[in-house]
Amino acid sequence: MSNAWYYQSMQEFEVVCKPQFQTLDNVTHGNNLFIKPELYCTLDSSSGSGDCTLDSPVTESSVTDDLNDFRHKLRQLETVMLSDLYEDPENNGKLSVGNGVVDFPDIEIWKEMVEGVPKRDLKDVLIACANAVSVNDYATSQLLISELQQMVSVSGEPIQRLGAYMLEGLVARLSNSGSSICSPASHELLSYTNILYKVCPYFKFGYMSANGAIAEAMKDENRVHIIDFQIGQGSQWVPLIQAFAARRGGPPHIRITAFDDSTSAQTRGGGLNIVGQRLCRLARSFNLPFEFHPVSVSVSEAGLQHFRLRAGEALAVNFAFVLHGLADESVSTENHRDRILRLVKSMKPKVVTLVEQESNTNTAAFYPRFLEALDYYNAMFESMDVSLPRESKERINVEQHCLAKGVVNIIACEGDERVERHELVGKWKLRFMMAGFSPYPLSSLVNGTIKTLMKKYSERYRVEERDGALYLGWMNRDLVASCAWK
Q1: Which of 130, 178, 324, 356 has CB 3.0 to 4.6 Å from 172, enough for a Cys bridge?
Q2: Model pLDDT for residues 278-299, shown as the tens digit of each residue
Q3: What is the 3-class SS of the chain, one letter each residue?
C-alpha cells in the first residue's frame, strides 16, 4: 500500500471528521457541550454492552480525553499502514515495529481494517496518470508516477510488464524525450526479432495470408514481379519461393523489388544485398529463376522510376506492417499514405496485400490513444505468456526491444515524431477504395490452413473472416488484420 494512498485517505478521513469536532477548539471553562449520537461515538463503545451513553452533558475534560484518544487511535492506524509489523515470539506475541516492541490493545482491529482495504488496481492508476498528463496536471502526474514505480515490473504479470513501458512513455512525454529512445545493437535486435517470429504468430499470420492471396492470383502466371515496401529480413518470401518451385507445370520467373527502412538495416547489420543474396541462394537450390532489385530510398520517397516495370510481368504489391508508418493528411500536406496507394494503383497490379495491426492510434488525441494502446498491448503481452515463461530472459528482451519502443512512441510522441500510427481495417478500406481499388477475395483454403496453424500456438488465439478481411485475435481482442485488393 503506497504512502500516497494513505495520505489521500487520511485527508478524506479528516474532512469527514472535522465537522464533528469543529467546536472543540472553542470550548471554554464552565460551558457544557452536547454531542448528538449520530455525530460522535468512541470506537471503544463497540465493546461491553455496545451502547453509547450520550444523553448526559459532556464536560470539557471528557471531550479532551476523547479527542486525545481519537488521535491516539489514528496514530495506531498510521503505524499499521506505514510500518512493517510482525509478532515477536520472544515478547509474548507482542507486535514489533522495526527494532521496537509495542503493545497496542486495538492493533488487531486496525490490522483487520487495513487488510480489508482493496489495493489499487494497476490499470486504474495508469489510466488516472494518463488523464492527469492529458490535462497538464503535473502535480497529480508526479504523484501517480511515484505510485506506479512501485507497482510495475518487467518480469511480473502481463499488465505489470506493459505498465513498465507505458510508465516509461508517460515520463518521456512529460520530459519531451520520446524520440530519443534507443534501439539495441544490430545483432541483438536481430536475435530478439527472430525469437518473436518463432514464438508468436503475428508475423506468420500476416505473411501467410498475404502469400496465399499472391499465390492464388499468380497461379497461372509465368513471370511474377513482387514489390515489397518493407522486406525486413525477407522471411516472408521463403515459403512462397518454395511453393512456386513446387508448382505443377514448373515455377515462374520471380523478380522482387525491395524497399528498406533504417531499423531493418540496423537489425541486419547491413544493406538489402544481404537479403538478396540469401533469397538468391534459396531460389537456386530449387532451380527457380529469380531476380532481386534493391531500392535504397524510403517508401515515402518512392516514385514510378524505382520499380522498373516490364511488359509481360504480373505485378503483386505487398504492404505488410508498413503503411502505418507513413504520414497521412493529419501530419503532412504531402500525405504519403494516400499518395503511395495512388501510385501503386497507377501501375495496375494484379493483387495488393495489406497486413496491419488492428488498432486505432493514428489521429486519436493522447488520452483515448493511451486507452487504446493499453487495451491492445495488454492482450499482446498476455499472449506472450503462452509462448515464453514469465521468468524467461528471452521474453523480457523480446518485449523490451521489439514491443516497448512502439508503446513509448505511441504515448510519448506527437507530430512527425510519432511514427506508430495504426488504423482499423475500416479506415484502410476507405483509403484503398478512394485510390481506386476493389476487394480481392481471400482463399478459403488458405484461411483454413491459417486457422489450423494458429491453434497449435494456443486455443485462445482466434482467426475470423469478416467483411472481406481476415483477423487474428487474442480472446476477444483483434490484433492483426489482413486483406487483399486489385
Answers
A1: 178
A2: 999 999 999 999 999 999 888 9
A3: CCHHHHHHHHHHHHHHHHHHHCCHHHCCCCCCECCCCCCCCCHHHHCCCCCCCCCCCECHHHHHHHHHHHHHHHHHHHHHHHCCEEECHHHCCCEEECCEEECCCCHHHHHHHHHCCCCCCHHHHHHHHHHHHHCCCHHHHHHHHHHHHCCCCCCCCHHHHHHHHHHHHHHHHHHCCHHHCCCCCHHHHHHHHHHHHHHCCHHHHHHHHHHHHHHHHCCCCCEEEEEECCCCCCCCHHHHHHHHHCCCCCCCEEEEEEECCHHHHHHHCCCCHHHHHHHHHHHHHCCCCEEEEEECCCHHHCCHHHCCCCCCCEEEEEEECCHHHCCCCCCCCCCHHHHHHHHHHHCCCCEEEEEEECCCCCCCCHHHHHHHHHHHHHHHHHHHHHHCCCCCHHHHHHHHHHHHHHHHHHHHCCHHHCCCCCCCHHHHHHHHHHCCCCEECCCHHHHHHHHHHHHHHCCCEEEEEECCEEEEEECCEEEEEEEEEC
